[in-house]
């Protein structure tokens, strides 16, 4: 698959054919239940017609037919299908309709609150409708928009002297914003930061959360754009701040992965231990990124997008890269030896390669801290977040 322009189709299973419930339950294990019988029947039928279940992603099924590929994803009673041969896709849909009562929804345009626009050369995903619903729910439809989701100089903590607020309201607001990050990686850092205060939210935290809505109001039609690629080369960026969370002095890791057009995997997470240096914080972040690489490469292999070369992960700290390449342990690294040996092993085995990049070129910076307007807008554009 040197070049791809695959259309995604959507169907909904209404009525399954008959199978023994016991076999379904045994196959689904903890996912089994009355509401999952349709899912179980569909799953077993896919296996019976030659699909292989991905070992890395529970909802993914793949079928190789000569030089062609069919890809199916299941979510309860919703079925998504794509492939590199339109005729095979149509044959599959007809085959499924003979076994199930199904509704053919055509090209996928809306799925789980996500809007999808497909054309020959690009795919654009966003949550414009959902964002409007959030603004309405929290009475922010007429709010004044801002250019960034968070004030760069703002520092949030548990004890800030501000009055406490209703936790239920705050949790609902942050929960809605969390789902919005499915297509809005540009707000992930601040939403993740605010989620640390679910049990001690104050007026200051609420003000910051509402600022996110003001930012969303001004970028209501933004999402992630994926353009047609000549090749699918996996690469990523890994970054961390240092001791940025004032309550416990822990650092925040962030990573970004792309196949050449737009970000498709991203993360922000507070580190579990206190890093004793910038290099250590960056090293811990890189280790998390490597774990994600291993999982992504398994899924890509299922899709025949084998990554034969080392996956490059760009890091803006030469000391962290030197630690990963140095076979000798010394006093400054003894306390994180497990991560140290793991990352070194992944480099030596040819899975990954840590590559130095300048700080101004570090795309994952947007996932680790609040940025000034100019840099925020630049990184937002470079990771593929834009309007349709």
Automatic annotation (TrEMBL):
CDD domains: RNase_HI_RT_Ty1
Chain ranges of the Reverse transcriptase Ty1/copia-type domain: 46-151
InterPro entries, A to Z: DNA/RNA_pol_sf, RVT_2
One Pfam match: RVT_2
PANTHER family: CYSTEINE-RICH RLK (RECEPTOR-LIKE PROTEIN KINASE) 8, GAG-POL-RELATED RETROTRANSPOSON
Name assigned to this protein: Copia protein
């Amino acid at each position: 698959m040197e070049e791809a322009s695959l259309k995604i189709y959507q169907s909904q299973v209404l009525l399954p054919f008959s199978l023994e419930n016991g076999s379904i339950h045994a196959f689904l294990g903890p996912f089994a239940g009355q509401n999952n019988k349709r899912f179980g029947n569909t799953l077993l039928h896919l296996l019976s017609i030659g699909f292989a279940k991905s070992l890395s992603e529970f909802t993914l099924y793949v079928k190789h037919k000569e030089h062609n590929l069919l890809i199916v994803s299941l979510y309860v009673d919703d079925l998504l299908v794509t492939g590199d041969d339109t005729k095979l896709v149509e044959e599959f849909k007809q085959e499924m309709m003979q076994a199930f009562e199904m509704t053919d929804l055509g090209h996928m345009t809306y799925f789980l609150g996500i809007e999808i626009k497909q054309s020959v050369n690009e795919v654009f995903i966003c949550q414009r409708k959902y964002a409007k619903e959030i603004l309405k729910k929290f009475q922010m439809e007429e709010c004044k928009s801002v250019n960034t989701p968070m004030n760069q100089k703002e520092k949030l903590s548990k004890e800030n002297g501000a009055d406490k607020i209703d936790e239920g309201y705050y949790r609902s607001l942050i929960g809605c914003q969390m789902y919005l990050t499915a297509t809005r990686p540009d707000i992930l850092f601040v939403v993740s930061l605010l989620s640390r205060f679910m049990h001690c939210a104050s007026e200051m935290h609420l003000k910051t959360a509402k600022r996110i809505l003001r930012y969303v109001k001004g970028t209501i039609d933004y999402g992630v754009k994926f353009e047609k690629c000549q090749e699918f080369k996996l690469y990523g960026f890994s970054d961390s701040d240092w001791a940025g969370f004032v309550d416990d002095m822990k650092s925040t890791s962030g990573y970004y992965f792309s196949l050449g057009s737009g970000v498709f995997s991203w993360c922000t997470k507070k580190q579990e231990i206190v890093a004793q240096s910038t290099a250590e914080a960056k090293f811990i972040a890189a280790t998390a990124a490597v774990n994600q690489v291993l999982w992504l490469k398994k899924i890509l292999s299922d899709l025949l997008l084998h990554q034969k070369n080392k996956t490059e992960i760009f890091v803006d700290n030469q000391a962290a890269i030197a630690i990963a390449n140095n076979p000798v342990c010394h006093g400054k690294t003894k306390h994180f030896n497990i991560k140290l040996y793991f990352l070194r092993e992944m480099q030596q085995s040819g899975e990954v390669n840590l590559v130095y990049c300048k700080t101004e070129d570090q795309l994952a910076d947007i996932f680790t801290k609040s940025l000034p307007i100019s840099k925020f807008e630049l990184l937002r554009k470079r990771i593929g977040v834009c309007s349709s």
